[in-house]
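ugh ok fine here u go
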Amino acid sequence: MRTNDPLKVMNDSINQTLSRTLATSMTTLLVLLALLFLGGELIHNFALALTIGVAVGTYSSIYVVTMVLLMMNISRDDLIIVISEEEEDGRP
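structure:
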């Protein structure tokens, strides 16, 4: 049974997924920057909007969501699925 406090769990989760999140975002940004600078006039505004969206979305998914969850006082008990007695017995 896990007894870590939510702050430690969030910190560990961010550390485990940070490199994967940044690698995905950077490869996406690489393509978007190529479109932005080499794509021509018609695609310029679209590539700019996507570039800003990826940058803001990455920042939000790493930092903002974690702080919102901590401010909401989410605990382990809030995330556990309650199994009714009927489901334990195998009855629907």
